[in-house]
Design brief:
The structure holds 2 protein chains of 2 kinds. By secondary structure, chain A is an alpha/beta fold. In chain A, 33% of the residues lie in helices and 15% in strands. Chain A is built from 8 helices and 8 strands, in the order E-E-H-H-E-H-E-H-E-H-E-E-E-H-H-H. The longest helix of chain A has 14 residues, at 187-200. The two termini of chain A are 37 Å apart. Chain B is α/β, with parallel strands linked by helices. Chain B has helices spanning 5-12, 37-46, 80-94, 109-115, 147-156, 181-192, 207-210, 214-222, 238-244, 253-263, 314-327, 353-363, 381-389, 392-399, 448-457, 463-469, and strands at 14-19, 22-26, 29-33, 57-60, 97-99, 124-127, 141-144, 158-162, 165-172, 200-205, 231-233, 276-281, 288-290, 298-300, 342-345, 373-376, 401-403, 424-427, 442-445. Chain B is globular, with a radius of gyration of 21 Å. Classes of the chains: A alpha/beta, B alpha/beta. At the A-B interface, helix 4, helix 7 and helix 8 of A face strand 1, strand 2, helix 2, helix 3 and helix 5 of B. Bound molecules: iron/sulfur cluster (SF4). Residues 62-63, 108-110, 129, 131, 347-348, 408, 411-412, 430 of chain B line the site of iron/sulfur cluster.
Chain lengths: 206, 470
């Protein structure tokens, strides 16, 4: 996984509440058993004028000028709620998103971001809205910085906000670690647990 | 020390403490389906990793398969066949249990899992599917994960999980006739928002929960994720032990006795601490129906569409306006006056035998209103066969419903099967998101009783009107 340390980029405001993963990537856009080839289907129902079509809807934020280059999303409460489809994180990453600032995330989506090099930043709604207002004045110049080494978001006007991230999640993002390889180092512990468990709860093992 | 049911199951599964409230939890059962499980199995293979204990890993075909009679590997979803054939090949290569098309054990993953005795009280069970929380109804600690996490669980039989905060939601009192578990959970989400449970693991408790059948408990827990919760769970009791007995993967004989003795300890001790408590009085609860595009947009069936202008939170107001525009409704309309085009009975929320019986009791001897497209999709092949033995398929067919093979079907639009744009559907499913049941489709969530009664009336209707007339 790609490492994340710090990023200064164009931020796109998409401030609706309860944006679900069906909206981030509609099921009909997940056409293959694959983690790639998904960027085209990102927000398809909003981004294009017809279902399954590719004619752009000029009103949708990611189709507008500088926002096409956005690497940061400014989002509303409960972003990524709904289906567990990791395709939502894969599609966002493939399209170019590396960090999302929101007052809260859907739980499974949050974990999927961390495992795919997207930093889910939880900051309060008023702050997200204030940053969005600054960005909207001149998205190209008014960039936002997400610094994971310092857990700090810097708004275009230079004001900063700290955010919290679980140490394990932070380390995974900073180092680009593979979680399976990390756990496999504990294999002896896992096997010992299983051996004890077979005695304790034999009904678990047919 | 006083412990909650969650504390107990958590402790029992802790392989290692990773610090900062995170545990490496042992995973007892893993379930996959062809939509998201396929990509996990393929990813694992590509990384040169093997499935540990494949005998405890299960896979079903439910999301992409067709539900029309005489189905094959062909589906209407572009590229859908590849999901089916690649999942089959990967499952065989990994040596896991596969409930394929044509197998009598096939069905919607969360319906099959308790039906086959795979989900048991006290187990940890994961699936790359958000409604895995359904299995809390049987006393399992079960939650939805992403595909990458599924690879982790498959390869190591563990997951690193940060302990969520705990919440107890106590439903007390008695449900009036015609009011169901679906109405309880919709009411909770409407009262506390779709994000009300974010960051929490929830124990559903109280006399009204204890009074529910096991199948109704599965319905209640199914929508814990629509409340934003990590998962939900209900302490197992004799009803659950009776339910489990004799199921294919459940223990039997002395092993079952030992298991039950242990399962009896899986209750929250008196005085167990929760980070948040919510108490709900069920005595005055009415059947619920949604008017918008989030499960939190629910209201009593005799209510009306709320007015966004009366909403003080500007974000909420904007989302209400957008929802009403999408749904083609205006503020103040009585829900009972809203005409429908279609009715759908199915999904892991409400497609078990008891749901079909309840709907059939309303439909019996009646026919759906002219022009209504009505579809019933049993949750599993076993449910379908049991329903047919009782003659429920005849009741549905005679009333004008299509009777289908089991699967997720029109619960979500996989690109092939869905309802039309602006078609208004009353549905027993769990998500009324924009485009969920088809591009532009307008979904109203409700119980099987409400869906059956509405199909007859051709508009949103209270099942109690039908039963009272009788
Ligand atoms: S029935 Fe619907 S909600 Fe349930 S698993 Fe299938 S697609 Fe998901």
């Amino acid at each position: 996984m790609e490492k994340f340390t710090t990023l200064t980029a164009i931020a796109a405001p998409l401030l609706m509440i309860n944006v679900d993963t069906d909206a981030i990537i509609p099921s009909r856009e997940m056409k293959k058993v694959s983690k790639t080839g998904l960027a085209d289907g990102l927000f398809a129902a909003w981004r294009y004028t017809t279902p399954g079509g590719r004619e752009e809807n000029p009103d949708f934020v990611l189709n507008r000028g500088p926002y096409r280059q956005a690497k940061i999303l400014l989002a509303g409460l409960n972003f990524g709620c709904g289906s567990s489809r990791e395709h939502a994180a894969w599609a966002l990453h493939e399209w170019g998103v590396r960090a999302i600032l929101a007052p809260g995330f859907g739980n499974i989506f949050y974990g999927n971001c961390v495992r795919n090099g997207i930093v889910p930043v939880v900051i309060d709604n008023a702050r997200v809205e204030a940053i969005a207002a600054q960005v909207e004045r001149d998205p190209e110049r008014n960039r936002v910085t997400v610094d994971l080494r310092q857990n700090l978001v810097t708004a275009p006007d230079g004001s900063t906000t700290t955010f919290a991230l679980a140490p394990a999640d932070r380390e995974m993002l900073l180092e680009g670690l593979d979680a399976i390889a990390m756990t496999q180092k504990r294999d002896a512990e896992i096997l010992a647990f299983q051996a004890r468990d077979r005695e304790r709860r034999p009904w678990i093992y047919p | 020390m006083t412990l909650s049911i969650i504390d107990k199951i958590w402790r029992e599964h802790g392989v290692a403490d990773l610090g900062d409230g995170t545990s490496l939890l042992y995973i007892d059962r893993i379930f996959l389906h062809e939509r998201t499980g396929s990509v996990a199995l393929k990813g694992l293979q590509a990384a040169g990793r093997r499935v540990r204990n494949p005998e405890l890993v299960f896979c079903t075909m439910d999301h992409i398969v067709d539900t029309l009679p005489g189905r094959t590997d062909q589906t209407r979803m572009p590229g859908g066949t590849a999901f089916i054939t690649e999942t089959r090949a990967a499952a065989h290569a990994a040596g896991i249990n596969l409930f394929d098309l044509g197998d009598e054990r096939q069905g919607i993953v969360h319906v099959v899992s308790p039906e086959q005795g795979i989900a048991l009280p006290g187990v940890t069970l994961v699936c790359p599917d958000s409604h895995t929380c359904t299995l809390g109804g049987i006393g399992a600690l079960a939650w939805g994960i992403g595909s990458t996490e599924a690879e982790h669980a498959l390869a190591t039989r563990t997951l690193a999980v940060r302990r969520p905060k705990s919440m107890r939601v106590s439903f007390d009192g008695t449900l009036a006739p015609g009011v169901t578990a679906k109405d309880m959970i919709l009411w909770l989400i409407a009262a506390h928002s779709a994000a009300g449970g974010v960051g929490y693991v929830i124990e559903f408790a109280g006399s009204a929960v204890r009074a529910l059948t096991v199948e109704a408990r599965l319905t209640l827990c199914n929508m814990a994720v629509e409340f934003g919760a990590w998962t939900g769970i209900i302490a197992p009791d004799d009803k659950v032990f009776d339910y489990v007995r004799g199921r294919p993967w459940a223990p039997s004989g002395a092993r079952l006795d030992a298991a039950i003795a242990h399962w009896r300890t899986l209750v929250s001790d008196p005085g167990a601490r929760f980070d948040r408590e919510i108490a709900i009085d069920c005595d005055r609860l009415a059947p619920q129906v949604t008017w918008g595009t989030s499960p939190q947009d629910a209201t009593a069936i005799d209510g009306s569409v709320p007015d966004p202008a009366a909403e003080t939170d500007p974000n909420r107001r904007k989302s209400m306006e957008r929802a009403l525009d999408y749904m083609g409704l205006s503020a103040g309309t009585n829900l009972g006056d809203v005409r429908i085009d279609a009715a759908f009975i199915g999904s892991c929320t409400n497609s078990r035998l008891s749901d079909l019986r309840a709907a059939a009791a309303i439909l019996k001897g009646r026919t759906v209103a002219p022009g209504i497209k009505a579809i019933c999709v049993p949750g599993s092949t076993q449910v379908k066969q049991a329903a047919e033995r009782e003659g429920l398929d005849r009741v549905f067919r005679d009333a004008g419903f299509e009777w289908r093979e089991s699967g997720c079907s029109m619960c979500f639009n996989a690109g092939g099967e869905g309802f039309g744009a602006k078609e208004r559907v009353i549905s027993t499913t769990n998500r009324n998101f924009e485009n969920r049941q088809g591009p532009g489709t307008r979904t109203h969530l409700a119980s099987p009783l409400t869906v059956a009664a509405s199909a007859l009336a051709g508009r949103i209707a209270d099942a109690r009107e039908v039963t009272e007339r009788r």
